[in-house]
Amino acid sequence: MLSNAVSCGVGLEPFGTGIAGITENGDVRNRLKSTAGYTLIELATVLVALSIMSLMSYVKLRPALEHGKVNAAASVMAIDLQYAQLMAAKGRKPVVVILTVSTQQYVIRDRATSTLIYRTRYLGSGTDFSLTSMAGTATTLEVFPTGVTRTTTTFTLGRLKREAGRPQDVADVAELRLLHGEHDG
C-alpha cells in the first residue's frame, strides 16, 4: 500500500532513505522511541508544581470548608425541628426535643411516652459535621401541635479549631433561634 502512495506522488520518500523515519524493513518504532515522550525530570517538575498548587488551594479553602460543616449541621437541625413540628401536628400531641450537650446529639420523641422516638441525631466527632460544641438556652424543648414552643430557645452549634500563632481556639459557630408563641397546652 505504501508503494502505491509513492507511485501516486503523495510525497513519501522511498524505503531506506531514513528521511521519513522508516527503515528498510518498514519499522517506525526505533525513530519514535528517541523523540516521543517526556523525560523524568519534566514529569517530576510538573508533579511538584501540581502538589504545591493543590496545597496552596487547600490552605485557602479549608476555613470555608470548616465553616460549611457548621452551617450544614445547623441546616440539618433546622430541618429536624421542622420534622418535630410536623410530628406534633400529625399526632395532635406535643413532641419533645431533648438536647444532650455532652455528646452533641438530640432526640425527638413523644412527650407522653418516652419509648416513642421519632429521630435521634448525633452531630459530634465521627460524623460529617464533627461538632465540638453544642449548647442551648434550654436542653428540653416542647413543640405543640400548633407549631409553637413554650419558650424562646437558642441552639448554638460550633467547631473549635487551633490556628497557628494564636493563643486561643477559634470557633466556627451557627445559631438557631426558635421563638415561642401562644399555645393551648
Explained architecture:
By secondary structure, the protein is α+β, with helices and mostly antiparallel strands. It has one domain (40-178): minor pseudopilin epsh domain (minor pseudopilin epsh fold, 3-Layer(bab) Sandwich), CATH 3.55.40. It is built from three helices and seven strands, in the order αααβββββββ. A hairpin with a 4-residue loop joins β1 and β2.
Q: Under CATH, the topology is which?
A: minor pseudopilin epsh fold
Summarize the helix and strand pattern as letters: HHHEEEEEEE
Our measurement of the CA-to-CA distance between the termini, rounded to an integer number of angstroms, reads: 95 Å
Helix content: 25-40%
Rounded mean pLDDT is 79
Task: Give the number of domains.
Answer: 1
- Tell me the total number of β-strands: 7
Content-based structural category: alpha+beta
Give me the number of helical elements: 3
Quick one: CATH superfamily?
Answer: minor pseudopilin epsh domain
User: In the CATH classification, which architecture applies?
Assistant: 3-Layer(bab) Sandwich
Q: Would you state the CATH class? A: Alpha Beta
Q: What is Rg?
A: 34 Å
Shape: elongated
Beta content: 15-25%
Main pleated sheet: 4 strands, antiparallel
**What is the spatial order of strands in the main beta sheet?**
3-2-1-5
Instruction: Outline the low-pLDDT stretches.
Output: 1-10
